[in-house]
Each structure stands twice: as structure tokens, then as C-alpha cells.
Amino acid sequence: MGARKKDETDAPADTITFLGTAGARFMVSKQLAASGGMWLDWNGTQVLIDPGPGCIVQATKRKLNAEKLSAIIISHRHLDHAADANVMVEAMTNGGFRKHGQLFAPADALGPEPVIFSYLKSYIEGITVLEAEKTYQTGNISFKTSARHTHPVETYGMVFAAAGQTVGYITDTRYFEGLAKSYAGSDLVIINMVLTEPRPIDHLSVPDVERLITALKPKTAILSHFGMHVWQARPWLVAEEMSKKTGIRVVAARDGMKFDLAQLKDIKAENDG
Ligand SMILES: [Zn+2]
After folding, report:
1. What is the distance between the alpha carbons of residues 195 and 230, in angstroms, rounded to a whole number?
2. 104 in helix, strand or coil?
3. Residue 2 has pLDDT above 60, yes or no
4. Which terminus in the chain has less CB density within 10 A, N or C?
């Protein structure tokens, strides 16, 4: 369990690869940044989270092999999180010739207007409907869903756990009291930050994220899923400022960034004990 391994691409084990950092419509439709979601390779299990538009392009470009995926997890049905779900199911199952892998998604992503075509459903081993605050398992990784987020469609973030560590993924939501509670104790927290200033839409802004980081005190926070204004403010400068303000290590994701989870073991967190 947790042993570092080498695969044929010689990539380090236990990593999160960012297949995109664009959030919301304009960033995605103009592809100012890529929008392919995240690829978690941890504890000998590979999982794809939120395969947005271009996921297949980004994954193959980064030499990530979809046939090795144990699961595809979709936090909610919005296009920037689910557009490439179909092609990634095909890739995961070698075009349907190898029945394999699982799909996890909220009920409304699988309802009358599902994110995957019905003919692809027989390609995979199973579809699991995500509900609030439940624990699921795929390969050697378990994950617990958050409370339902405040977002126009049914949306859950999740806290992944393996090898004695936890990684929280705070997907799209409006800030609400109690949001941090779902992610308490996360060693690493990844936060979708669309806005610079709070606006009456269901997304997190810079001040919201500062509040979350201050409450959660993770060992590291990674910002991603940037809206146009965050992009214009340069995410790495926003992250630097946030590090100074909160005293917590904050990193802005970049397209293709491979975050090595092993480094978390070396950081003493204020939330320990
Ligand atoms: Zn959304």
C-alpha cells in the first residue's frame, strides 16, 4: 500500500495531474486555459475527476493511459466538468472491448439528459449515483462526498483518502456557512476559484477561498478552475498574496502541472491534532 512504483512512462507515482485550469464559460470556450479536469494516480489506483472539454487531448498529450483508470468521477453535470465523459469512457474501456471501470456522478447527471450516452453504459462495470456525505471506494482510494453544494445543478465535492492522507476537492459552489466542515482535516485541498470578488452567482471568490483556507488550515492549498478576472489578475500572484495573508502554502495550478503527493508527508500541518 502506498509504495512508490514506476510504470512504463516512468512517471512518479502518487500524483495529481491538472489537465486544465479554466473555469466557467469564457475561459473554457476560448480555451485561454485547458479544461480537462484532474487525474489522480495514488496508492496504485488511477481516477479521473471532472473530464471537461479537451480531456482526451490533454490526457493523451500528457501520456496518461485511460485504460488504467479505475473510475471517472463527475462532481456535477456542467459542461466544463463533464463534456468529455463519453470519450473518456470509450478510452477507459478500449472502445468498449474491455468492460472495465466505474462511473460516479450525481443523480441529475444521469437523469433524463444524462452526461453519458446509453450505449456506453454497458462498456463500464458499474454506475454509482453520488449522494451527500457518503463514502465510496474505487481501487485503493476511498472518497467521501461533501454536503450538497450551492450550485444550479446537483453538485458534490469530495475528500479522497489513501495511504493515511486526504485530498479535498472543493468543486463549484457559492460560499455557505458549513462548507468548510465537509473538508475538515484535508492535508491538501484543491479549490475551484472562479471569481476575484463575490458576485451573486454560485461560485467561490478570492475572499471566500481565503476564509476556507483559514478555517481548514491544510498543508497545501491548490487553486484552479479560474474565471476570466482571476486569469487577468494572474492566478500565481493571487496565490502568492493568499499565502502571505493566511500563512498557508497556496499554489496556483497550471495546465499540465503534476503535483507530487509525497511532499505532503514532509509538511507539518497546523490541523494535525
Ligand atoms: Zn459548475
Report:
1. 6
2. strand
3. no
4. C
